[in-house]
Automatic annotation (TrEMBL):
Protein name per Swiss-Prot or TrEMBL: Helix-turn-helix domain-containing protein
Domain HTH cro/C1-type: 9-62
InterPro entries xref list: AAA+_ATPase, AAA_16, Cro/C1-type_HTH, Lambda_DNA-bd_dom_sf, P-loop_NTPase, TPR-like_helical_dom_sf, TPR_rpt
Species in which this protein is naturally found: Kutzneria chonburiensis
Pfam families cross-referenced by the UniProt entry: AAA_16 (PF13191), HTH_31 (PF13560)
């Protein structure tokens, strides 16, 4: 696909009867570089724009470049080796893919059936065969539809993950409809295959369906998903047990022809005892492979002696078959397996496994490797693991009976998360004062740590990104087992990460749980921290009425328990909110009170933010020079403590003041600084806001081409995030719908 830009250039050059040198002279580049572009090298956006103008392409080359630079995900998990049978089903699915469909809707294939029937195996096998039909890539999502110890994946979480895979890493919004609209837009011009595995119900998958006929969707579920018929005309395939011949073929493939032929009657009995379910057949056959001196009839006898009850499927007991694998595990792996059934998140890392089990990481690594080898655990990345849903169910059932120290194990796990998140915060924001008293780590629990440099900060940020889907489930798990202090402290410790990434769903939900935990403890000081963070989350989302109510609660809570440092932050946030509401009197009052406390605690960042707010108050009162002077002092204080986050806040306020003074050149210089500082901070949201504002200023200065380039960069960032309002506004600017001077103020 990356050669399409070069092909377009060559076609346009030929149409205009231009030689390679002739076009190179027009574009003021060397013929050699132009030749490389025509043969697949992607140019910069500026060079693409130059070629577009030289060839009179009216923007088409820029559009081609954008398509060429889009990620092409290839997310399909590895297909099952030794796949046998299901030939009628494969023919049926192939015919559905080749059949003409309504050009207005995507092809939807729904594969349903009982657990263990091999729905996922068939879907992945077929999806891999269909890859050539979908040149723009494949997406995969495990929706976790059926697991008693883990809630199904929420559509907003899945959409955020899919958008990140499409090059649109949505930092967060609680609005599923906005995420779904962004997702449909990202797929609009792509031909992609999407596999939605293990769906719970139609409501879960409806937002995940694309809006273009260029895409195809394969859905697997234990349910029939009858609501699909209301949305589309899905091609349905109900997958039941395999035929007798297919079952024997599968067993023979795993066992080998010689051993299968040795006991044909026992082979047929084994297939029958497994209910001809592919999962049970494969596990039983692998059990036989690992015990070559064990006759097949012995396995049949063992099955007959056990209770037959496999998830509602008559005459088969997958639990018994799973137990065969467990009996051959070493003690560490055998102890670990049921414990992992308690983990509520979609994945778990090897380091978290070690903390959960209270064993050294090297032991945990060997145990997880053993479980993976026995097909009881699945590796999904470097040192990260997940369960097949049936095996998770079985592990969870065992945990209820066999794990005797569940509260202690959960305490170790939640403590590991708390102290690892604390270490991440220390490298992401070393200037931030942490007044929370944390309990000592349990013996044998070793949290992660990172170096205090840019590389360490990036690694810490990546760890937080990887663990984001686990944070809320871990908080809930801690509460379920009475560890309320850990439950309220973890969201508060994540404050710096939440500020940088703004995953609103996790921000709000984690703090709602944290407030319940604090209230259960009767810890009003803890509740004050949590409510303050909740208030700021709502303020940054623009829900100012809710933020106002929560900030009032936070001030009251912190005053009641004489938490002066916490009160300072509640006052500072209240000052930000008052300025947002243009209430200069209350903003001044709150900022002055907060400053007095920050001085007492020698908190430079808090003092600088309050100084910035006082400058904002002067701006509201018309004293622009005074406001600019105070903000300049605040900027210097932020630089002294190396707070990139604080510098971005102050720079944006200073830009607004310069614009009110009609001092466009100085505003542009500060906007350039804001873009660079935001990029260094890795805050794409702040960078997008600064680029948008920069485009406005460039337009007022008459530099319309530079303005368009700035807006295009902003649009790319907004499309990576969840800010559909920002994307829409910038698109309108680019289309000339809005005046070039339209304002895009940012939050403090």
């Amino acid at each position: 696909m990356s050669e399409s830009f070069g092909r377009h250039v060559r076609a346009l050059r030929t149409r205009h009867a231009l030689s390679l040198r002739g076009l190179a002279d027009l574009a003021r580049i060397t013929p050699g570089y132009l030749s490389k572009i025509e043969n697949g090298r992607l140019p910069s956006v500026d060079m693409a724009r130059t070629l577009d103008v030289a060839l009179g392409a009216n923007g088409s080359l820029l559009a081609v470049l954008t398509v060429d630079q889009l990620p092409r995900p290839a997310q399909l998990p590895l297909a099952m080796s030794g796949f046998v049978g299901r030939e009628p089903e494969i023919r049926d699915l192939t015919a559905a893919l080749e059949r003409p469909t309504d050009s207005r809707v995507p092809l939807i294939i729904a594969v349903d059936g009982p657990p263990g029937a091999g729905k996922t195996t068939l879907a992945l096998h077929f999806a891999h065969k269909a890859i050539p039909r979908f040149p723009d890539g494949q997406l995969y999502a495990d929706l976790r539809g059926h697991s008693p110890h883990d809630r199904p994946a929420r559509p907003d979480e899945v959409l955020a993950d899919l958008l990140r895979s499409l090059g649109v890493p949505a930092a967060g919004t609680a609005d599923v409809e906005q995420l779904a609209a962004l997702y449909r837009s990202a797929l609009a011009e792509r031909r992609m295959l999407i596999v939605l595995d293990n769906a719970a119900d139609f409501a879960q998958i409806e937002p995940l369906l694309p809006g273009t006929a260029r895409c195809a969707v394969i859905i697997t579920s234990r349910e029939r998903l009858s609501g699909l018929t209301l949305r589309a005309s899905p091609h349905r395939l109900t997958l039941g047990p395999m035929s007798e011949d297919e079952s024997l073929a599968l067993l023979t493939t795993v066992l080998g022809r010689e051993r299968a032929d040795r006991e044909p009657a026992a082979l047929a009995s084994l297939a029958a005892r497994c209910g001809r379910l592919p999962l049970a057949l494969r596990v039983a056959a692998e059990r036989a492979v690992t015990t070559p001196d064990y006759d097949l009839r012995d396995l049949v006898t063992e099955l007959d002696s056990e209770r037959l009850d496999v998830l509602g499927v008559e005459d088969a007991d997958v639990r018994t078959i799973f137990s065969w694998s467990l009996r051959r595990l070493d003690p560490d792996a055998a102890r670990l397996f049921p414990l992992l059934g308690l983990h509520p998140g979609p994945q778990i890392s090897g380091r978290a496994v070690a903390a959960f089990a209270g064993m050294p990481h090297t032991f945990a690594r060997r145990a997880t490797a053993r479980l993976t080898h026995a097909h009881l655990l699945r590796a999904v990345g470097r040192d990260r693991y997940t369960f097949h849903d049936l095996i998770r169910d079985y592990a969870a059932e065992l945990a209820d009976r066999e794990v005797t120290d569940t509260p202690a194990a959960v305490y170790r796990l939640a403590s590991w998360y708390l102290h690892s998140a604390t270490a991440a915060t220390h490298v992401l924001a070393p200037f931030r004062f942490d007044p929370m008293a944390k309990d000592e780590l349990p013996r044998g629990v070793h949290p992660l740590g990172w170096t205090a440099d840019d590389a360490g900060a990036l690694d810490a940020l990546r760890w937080c990104d990887a663990e984001l889907p686990n944070f809320v489930p871990i908080i809930q798990l801690a509460m379920d087992h009475g560890h309320y202090k850990l439950a309220w402290q973890l969201p508060v410790v994540l404050w710096t990460y939440l500020l940088q990434r703004r995953p609103w769903t996790v921000w709000i939900r984690s703090h709602e749980l944290a407030r319940q935990a604090a209230q259960h403890l009767g810890d009003r000081a803890a509740e004050g921290w949590v409510v303050t963070n909740l208030a700021e989350g709502y303020r940054r989302m623009g829900e100012l009425a809710m933020a106002n109510r929560l900030y009032a609660e936070a001030r009251r809570l912190r005053s009641d328990v004489d938490d002066r440092y916490g009160l300072a932050w509640a006052l500072a946030g209240s000052a930000f909110l008052a300025a947002d509401l243009r209430d200069d009197r209350r903003a001044q009052e709150f900022a002055d009170r907060a400053t007095q406390i920050f001085v007492q605690y020698k908190d430079i960042q808090g003092q600088a933010l309050c100084l910035m707010t006082r400058g904002d108050v002067l701006r509201l009162r018309g004293d622009l020079d005074g406001g600019l002077a105070l903000c300049g002092l605040a900027l210097g204080m932020m630089a002294d403590i190396a707070s990139l986050e604080g510098q971005v806040h102050v720079l944006r306020k200073m830009v607004e003041i310069h614009l009110l003074r009609k001092d466009l050149p100085h505003a542009l210089v500060l906007l350039d600084d804001t873009v660079l500082t935001s990029k260094e901070l890795r805050d794409r949201w702040a960078e997008a806001e600064a680029l948008t504002r920069r485009g406005d200023v460039l337009t007022e200065l008459g530099r319309r081409d530079d303005a368009r380039a700035s807006w295009q960069q902003a649009l790319a960032l907004y499309d990576e995030l969840d800010d559909t309002t920002g994307s829409r506004s910038v698109r309108e600017l680019l289309a000339g719908v809005l005046p070039a001077t339209a304002a895009h103020p940012g939050n403090s």
